[in-house]
Amino acid sequence: MLVMKFGGTSVGSGERMLHIARIVQDVRSGWLPAGHQGPVQPDRPIIVVVSAMSGVTDALLNAARRAATGRPGACDVAETLREQHYQAIETVALPEEQAVLRAEIEQLIQEFRNLCMAISILGESTPRGLDAAASLGERLAVRLTAAALRKTGIPATAVEATRLIVTDDRFTDASPLMDETEQRVREHLIPLVKAGQTPVVTGFIGATREGWTTTLGRGGSDFSAAILGYCLNADEVWIWTDVDGVMTADPRVVPTAHTIPEISYAEVAELAYFGAKVIHPKTIRPAMEKNIPIRILNTFNPGGPNTRIVAQPDRNQGGVKGITSIKGLSLIMVEGRGMLGIPGIAARVFSTVAAEGISVLMISQSSSEQSICFVIRREESARALQMLERAFAYEMAARNVDRIWALDDVAVLAIVGAQMRETPGIAARVFGALGRAGINVLSIAQGSSEHNLSLVVAEPEADEAVQAIHREFFGG
Ligand code: ADP
Ligand code: ASP
Ligand code: MG
C-alpha cells in the first residue's frame, strides 16, 4: 500500500487536479521517483489524501471569524468559493458527472452559509464552529480530485475522514485516538481498495466519537497521510508539495537552498518543529513508530530531486543538514540577583505559563542563575507577563526578582543536523557568520536532542541570519 498526499497548491486548480491524476496514473503503471531503491510490489494499492485548494482554508476561517464580529458581508466569500469550485468542475469532471458534482458542491457551500449565519447570530466563533467551517475546504476538494482521477481512467471514490479518523475533542488541534482510528480505517478503506477503487481522502479533518468534526491543526493534511499509513501498514508515504523535497533552508528565504536527499526522522522532526513548513511536525511520529519511509516530492517537478525520510539514512554524514526559522515570537525574561537563593523558581515560572496553556518553544538559563529566559508566541506574551507578575508578586516586592519583561518580535533560528555535538566548531562558525553579518544573537540554547542548536535574533534580521548561516555551511 502507498499513501500519497497532495497539498493545497498541488490541487490549486482544475488543471492541477488533472495533473495529479496523471501522476497517480503513472505511479499505478510503475513510475518511481529519482533515487528509489529496492523492489516494489506490482499494482500496489494507492490511497490519495488531499488538502483544500490553496487559499480556501484561510478564506473559510477568515469569514467565520469576521462573521463573529457581526460585520456585514462576512459570508460573501461563499460566492467566490462556489465560483472557484464550479470552474474546476468544468475541467476535472466527465460531462455526465458535472451536474451531480455541482449539486454536491452547492450543498457544501450552503452548509457553509448556514454556519456563517449561525456564527454571526451568536456573535462568537467557537473552536468547534471554526473546525466545522475549515473542514469544508477538504470536503470540497476530495470530490473534485476523485472526479479528476475518474476522468483520467482511475476508479476513484471520495471519502471524508470524519468517518475514519477518530479524535479527542481539542477542536482546532485534535489528536487521533489510534486504536479506534485503525479499526475504522481498515473497515472502510480495505473493502474499497479490494473493489479496485482508489480512495481520495480528506486531509486535515477527523471527528470526535460523538461525530463532531475536528481538525488536526493548520497544515495537518501531512499528519492525516501518516495516520492512514500507520493504520494500513503502508510501505511508504509520499507527500507531494510545491518544492523539491526538504531543502537546506526555505527556498523562499534562501534561493540557493538545495534538496536534502536523505534525512532521519529525528532530524526532520527538528526542522519541522522549528518552522520548515514543508512537513507538519506531527507527521513524523506515526511513520517512525512503524518504520514507514516518508518521501517528499514536487508535483511541479515529479522526476526531480526529492527527500527520503528514514530512521537511519545510508549516507548520514554529520554536520549541518538544514537551517530554519520561526517568526512571530517573544522572548520572556525573568531576572533578579536574588533568584539564586529561591528554590524551584524555574519550575514555578514554567508551571505558571503551562497553566495558561502557553507552549514554550525554547528555554535558556544563564549559568549565574540570575535570569531565566524562554520563547513563546508573540500573541501570548502579554498574558504570560501578567500571569508571571501575579505569581511572583511577593518575590518582586522583596526584590528577589527585579524584572519580568518581554522582548517582542523575535525569531528562533534552528541549525539542525545529526551528531552536531560531536562535530567540533559548528557553534563557532554559526556565530562567526552572524558576527560578520552584523547580527546580534539575543539568546542561545543547545537542544537536548543534540540535533539542534537554536538561537534567538530580532525578527527583522531573521532572513538575513538564515542566509548568512546557509552561506557559511553550504556556500553560494
Ligand atoms: P503544501 O500545501 O503542499 O502542504 P506547504 O506550503 O505547507 O505545502 O509547504 C511547502 C512550503 O514549505 C514550500 O513552498 C516552502 O516555501 C516551505 N518551506 C519552509 N522550509 C522549507 C524547507 N526547509 N524545505 C522545503 N520547503 C520549505
Ligand atoms: N488545508 C489545511 C490548511 O490550510 C490543511 C493543509 O493544508 O495541510 O491548514
Ligand atoms: Mg503543508
Question: What do you see in this structure?
Answer:
This protein folds into two domains: 2-310, Acetylglutamate kinase-like (Carbamate kinase), CATH 3.40.1160; 322-474, 2-Layer Sandwich (VC0802-like). Helices cover 39% and strands 20% of the residues. The chain is built from 14 helices and 17 strands. It has helices spanning 14-28, 56-68, 77-92, 98-122, 127-151, 178-194, 221-231, 265-273, 284-289, 345-355, 381-391, 393-397, 426-436, 462-474; strands spanning 2-6, 46-50, 156-159, 166-167, 198-202, 205-208, 213-215, 236-241, 262-264, 294-298, 307-310, 322-335, 362-365, 371-377, 403-416, 443-446, 452-458. The strands form three sheets. Strands 3-5-2-1-8-10-11-9 form an eight-stranded mixed β-sheet, with helices on both faces. The chain has a six-stranded antiparallel β-sheet with strand order 13-14-12-15-17-16. Strands 4-6-7 form a three-stranded mixed β-sheet. The longest helix has 25 residues, at 98-122. The radius of gyration is 24 Å and the shape is globular. The model has no long low-confidence stretch (mean pLDDT 94). The protein binds adenosine-5'-diphosphate, aspartic acid and magnesium ion. The site of adenosine-5'-diphosphate has 20 residues, from loops.
